[in-house]
Specification:
Radius of gyration: 13 Å
Strand content: 35-45%
Helix content: 10-25%
Number of strands: 9
Number of helices: 2
Shape: globular
Structural class: mainly beta
Largest sheet: 9 strands, antiparallel
Strand order of the largest sheet: 5-3-4-9-8-1-2-7-6
Number of domains: 1
């Protein structure tokens, strides 16, 4: 089954199952955008910084705010539902191809 995230105005929403698979025991992530690729890296030590993975509901879904990252790339108002994600061992990150228009 393909796992997905949702992006809405600088926030990223993660279903509980995805969090359990890739971010179990992780309280923060680093969010980077490289072209049309979103990279979400686990932060293993709270002192290292990152954006907090906040619990969104009783089911364990999480949300992270990365407003500054999206704004820096001109994507402050960007929204997309059911964006497929994949784990990259080489990047040690969860990757998503953002469906953005390059025009």
């Amino acid at each position: 089954m393909e796992q997905t995230i949702s992006v809405a105005r600088g926030t990223i929403r993660f279903p509980a199952g995805l969090v359990a698979t890739y971010f179990s025991g992780i309280d923060a992530v680093a969010v980077l955008i490289d072209g049309a690729t979103l990279r979400i890296l686990p932060v293993f030590h709270a002192a290292a910084g990152g954006a907090l993975l906040k619990q969104r509901n009783a089911q364990g879904d999480r949300v992270v705010g990365a407003f500054d990252v999206y704004e820096a790339h001109g994507l402050a108002d960007f929204e997309a539902q059911d964006v497929p994600v994949r784990w990259s061992s080489g990047d040690a990150a969860l990757l998503a191809d953002l469906p953005v228009d390059d025009n």
